[in-house]
Write a structure and sequence with these properties.
This protein has 299 residues and is of the alpha/beta class. It contains 10 helices and 8 strands. It is 39% helix and 13% strand.
Length: 299
């Protein structure tokens, strides 16, 4: 098959002012993506646009960066202003504490600021290793307040960005089945930590693929290996596309996190190589079409 040369939508990136993020500007601590000195600084939209346009990316979706929970409305306001000044990003995924009964009111305040909002992300991943952990327990998907608030997403027409590890996927499959009217986006293709997790990861993908309201992001595969690994990209792309199809998969850079170990053009080229065996229409779906449909971007 010819290798992809068409337009690209980045379905998952960040921009930030380090001063807004205590986790980034505070003391260095072990984190899921390893040492992070290169990104302990501002990464503003101008730098992102330069990275993106050099890589053939013409549209993008911003994903929340863990501002303090009492400032999540400020985060959306800032992204609105960034978009008004530059035209980027073209869609925004915000954040809210879905374990708070008042979350729907916060989401309505966010929605009133800008039509760029498409959904919210609550990082629910939990692991025995503290530096891999975000949630405070492995089974937080069962929390009744969280589930009530996910139900409220349908009223806003918003999606939920689901970030879990392979061993949490059975609970995730039950969650998505309980809310067929909400689109769930599996972040970083289910966060395959290493080959020792292939069994539960594949089983989890099988379970999630049965739910038509789940799509998958082909993103973040440098998180645990701290490099662009062509074999890993090919493995993940193949397993995801086999189960979900190209119309339920989408590419993203996860910049600037992946900027710790790579420039953006080599990352994009490596994903093109990993998907080059697909028919042209499927390659276009992964690199542009699926993200445009899921995030309501221009045709």
């Amino acid at each position: 098959m010819p290798r992809y040369t068409g337009d690209i939508v980045d379905s998952h990136h960040h921009v930030w002012r380090a001063g807004d993020l205590p986790w980034l500007s505070g003391p260095m601590v072990p984190r899921i993506f390893g040492p992070y000195e290169p990104i302990r600084r501002d990464y503003l939209i101008g730098e992102y646009i330069a990275d993106a346009t050099a890589s053939g990316i013409g549209e993008s979706v911003y994903v929340q960066t863990n501002w303090p929970l009492d400032r999540v409305v400020d985060e959306v306001r800032w992204l609105r202003d960034v978009h008004e000044e530059t035209g980027w990003p073209m869609a925004v995924i915000g954040s809210v504490d879905l374990f708070d009964a008042n979350a729907p009111e916060t989401m309505r305040r966010q929605a009133a600021l800008t039509p760029l909002l498409r959904g919210t992300r609550q990082q629910l991943h939990w692991h025995e290793r503290p530096e891999f952990r975000f949630a405070d327990a492995p089974d937080r998907m069962k929390d009744p307040v969280l589930r009530k608030n996910i139900g409220a997403l349908a009223d806003l027409g918003w999606l939920f960005e689901l970030q879990v590890f392979p061993e949490q996927m059975p609970d995730a499959a039950k969650l998505v089945a309980a809310f067929p009217g909400v689109t769930f986006v599996l972040v970083h293709a289910g966060m395959l930590i290493g080959h020792e997790y292939l069994g539960p990861w594949r089983a989890g993908l099988d379970a999630l693929a049965e739910a038509p309201n789940v799509v998958v992001k082909l993103t973040g595969q440098g998180t645990f290996v701290h490099r662009v690994d062509p074999d890993l990209l090919s493995l993940v792309a193949g397993e995801v596309i086999d189960r979900f199809g190209a119309d339920r998969a989408m590419f993203g850079t996860n910049f600037p996190v992946e900027k710790i170990w790579t420039a953006m053009p080599p990352l994009v080229e490596a994903w093109k190589d990993a998907l080059a065996h697909l028919p042209p229409a499927d390659q276009h779906a992964v690199f542009a079409g699926t993200a445009r449909r899921v995030y309501g971007l221009r045709a």
